[in-house]
Design goal:
The protein has 2 domains: about 1-55, Orthogonal Bundle (Arc Repressor Mutant, subunit A), CATH 1.10.10; about 75-175, no CATH class. The chain is built from 9 helices and no strands. It has helices at about 5-20, 35-40, 45-50, 55-70, 85-95, 95-105, 110-125, 135-155, 160-175. One of its GO terms (molecular function) is DNA binding. It comes from Gordonibacter urolithinfaciens.
Length: about 180
């Protein structure tokens, strides 16, 4: 990466880190560009060179998490019945807990649920609207999202391995009873 692109990436990341600092204290839709650039220690022009709005900065954060998720995802692992993949998910989101909880606390949870759901849809591939299996993907994404938030908010005391086992047990229980 050339120096200019690297510097630009650093500015974007500093702005995102500044936005995360506002989580829980202020709704992100109310955070101003002035507050962000002061918190990040960057010039106002740097913000506008990279983003047209705070919403674009939020989208950048979502893209960053999504890219990191897919870059580290074990190859050939798909579906909610794959224990190794479920463990990876808990490990990944624990490593990114600050950002995940920031989205949640900033009332941007819909964006976060969309991220989890989109990762599941990407793993499962396109399904026809007439396919009842597509509901499984949404069920799984919602269940995983809620278990994940509960775990992270309680300090992620259990290991990703233990959480994968517990979650797999929940999924198996639902599948057996349906």
């Amino acid at each position: 990466m050339d120096k200019r692109k690297l510097a630009n990436r650093q500015v974007k990341d500093r702005l995102l880190a500044a936005l995360v600092e506002f989580a829980g204290r202020k709704d992100w839709s109310k955070v101003t560009v002035t507050e962000l650039v002061e918190q990040a220690g960057v010039a106002r022009a740097s913000f506008y060179r990279n983003f047209a709005s705070v919403e674009e900065l939020v989208d950048y954060g979502i893209r960053q998490v999504t890219e990191r998720y897919h870059a580290g995802k074990p190859e050939g692992r798909e579906g909610f019945r794959d224990r190794a993949l479920v463990e990876y998910k808990f490990r990944f989101y624990r490593e990114n807990a600050k950002l995940v909880l920031a989205f949640h606390r900033a009332k941007a949870a819909t964006s976060l649920l969309d991220l989890v759901t989109d990762c599941e849809i990407a793993a499962w591939g396109d399904m026809p609207l007439s396919s009842p299996a597509r509901y499984e993907v949404y069920f799984y994404a919602g269940a995983f999202y809620n278990v994940l938030l509960c775990w992270l908010e309680s300090g992620a005391r259990e290991s990703p391995e233990a959480m994968a086992d517990a979650f797999m047990g929940l999924v198996d229980g639902v599948v057996r009873h349906s």
